[in-house]
Sequence to fold (764 residues):
Amino acid sequence: MTRRGLLLFATLFVLMVVVGLVNGTANIFLLMVTALCYSLIALGLNLQFGYGGLFNLAIMGLLMVGAMGVTSISMPINMGFWNSEGPYLLFRAIVAAVVGLGIVFLARQVRRLGASGTVQFWVSLIAWFAAYVIYRTQIDPAADYIEHTNSGAGWVGGLGLPIYVGWAVGAALAGVAAYVIGKISLGLRSDYLAIATIGMSEIIRAFIKNMDWLTRGTLTVSPIPWPVPTVTDYLNSGYGQINSFILARGGFVLLMVVLLAVVVYGIERAYHGPWGRMMRAIRDNYIAAGSMGKNVTERQLQLFVLGSVLMGLGGAILASYNQLFDPSGYAPINHTFLIWVMVIVGGAGNSYGALFGGVFVYLVWALSDPVSHAIFDQISAVLKQFGWPAIPDVDSRASQMRVFVLGLVITLALRFAPRGLIPEVIRREK
Amino acid sequence: MDIIVFIINKAVITGLVIGSVYALGAVGVTLIAGILRFSHFAHGDVMTMGAFFSFVLAAFFAGLGLHWPIASGIVVLPVSMAATALVLYGFDIAFYAPLRRRGARPITLLIASIGVTMMLQGVLRLFAGTQSYSFFQNEPKLLYRIDLGWLGATRPLTLTQPQAFMIGLTLVCCIALALFLTRSRLGKAMRAMSDNPSLAQVSGINTQLVVRMTWLISGALACLAGTMLALDVQLKPDLAFNIILPIFAAAVVGGLGQPYGAIAGGFLVGFAETLSVFDWSVVTKPFNAYLPDFIVNAPNLALVPTEYKLVVSFVILVAVLLSRPTGIFKGVST
Fold:
């Protein structure tokens, strides 16, 4: 790392200490865990965009998949569901899905009979439609039974496995989702890729939000277990209130620091190795890299999945730290573009940049809320002195200012520091 | 006959209206993509901004006590369209032009447009909050009834005044745009620049003027689309991504950079969304005796549940990208 980078990290540390002194240790630990989670996600995006030049706007969807992995693995087993008709109905839905896919597979074999392109297209369209109808006739009653019948128990519930398994499965599920997204859309370049990925992320959100039987949807899932002792655990063992908050959150911070250290070490090793050189070659000129015998599509897919695994892990940790999975709380601004601002402000292509950007931008984002509230309250009070009416719903309006600030930060960064605060170090061989 | 009238009232008119909104938005997106080579993500919020200009102007005129036979939101359109076009051109001068001069890649411009959309959203919600507004608080929403008794229908064809204007204005705009692009000097210059920017520049086309014209046209169309959507349903400041994503789907389906493709794509996506959430049980009811039980007993015969409406446009998008990556009409690649 350069001297400038060290200086920036030192400034960030001082900033955090100051905030900690003003707001209390418990509060800064709360901010830090979330900021470090976002750093982990930013590292994932940095892999995809900084190392591979892949324009991924599906971050929100991947975070949701990761969080869903945690809820369905680590929440306690819902005996009400397993003792009801639900599992049988769901099994029938799965069989229907398999039958439907079988029909589609058979329809694809029409080309062996020498059918023309148009016939193939219509046959497979009809097959997809038939498969969809068969699946819907089975899944609709199953979902309705689980969600609305008293004995159906509301939702499927979890498997009651330890939280680390939940994190791993969440990350793996995000990887699978990324594999599917990548297979479909990585052949596209820049703009098309951006539109396709943001579309997929909205599709994922629509499904997770509305499949109440699987994810409880807008009813939200809580409390998700912690990997370290929680506040209640410390309270029960006789610690004071403030101390137990500090200890519980401090434990989580420590865990995150260790995790991030491992991830950054791994990424840096890979970056400076032959693999990293190949990735940069593909990013800077994929045609040249392809003509050197590198399998561009395969490598990009690999990078896309790897970055998305980190994102899924980040999403899983965020959900379990908040102890709440609320699908309607996810929005493209908070969960996709915020990460982009982190990577661009921090410096694409440099993992320390992503790390710094993640923590710094999150602090700005989190702290701009109370600051703008204070400013707006002041303005409102001044207006009142002059006999003007106070600003209506001053709180909700003030909250909108941080979206504006985020937009301003990203446009200014692109204009005046396009390579970020801690830019990628380009080493030239002599 | 009644069934056909019902389908027209409930599905065809809705599809036409939402298709018009998507088509007008997609034309703007596709013109920007063709000439400036980047996807303008802020277009949805520009539409919302245009609708707000119309709303404020309409309220202002209503406050003056002026009344027209047509809804005041439609009367103020020329003024608000001009205002939106100028503001959008201002965005170009402030945010995009400096990046273009530096020779930034299209992807940088795309990120900048995301920044612009966030700033716009912040400002809009700062002034408007997050609640919905209606243009028709102080005036009635006129309803046109077309009697089809001579065709044997007992129910009339109904559409509201904004819907009728929406369909008519979209038609007018499409024809005007087509004439502009094929007959006028500037329109031909725009097409030339969309085809090959460097060739256009060396053959003496004023590229600055073409860029300015692109922003003005897409801004005006965005304002028209936004206002019409707000007149048809409600003015929602937090529409943003719910509107821009189907518009991108429409533009990509039609082929980025192809204005006619965008119009076709807009109607395709609009109709696909409407028809997929349309409850077909009205149509199947007369045949209930011949149909299997699971169709007769189903509570709702819509192909897709309403909450998955947004997904429909993306399934189309993905299918088109897979089978014909540059859209139905051949699009530009950046």
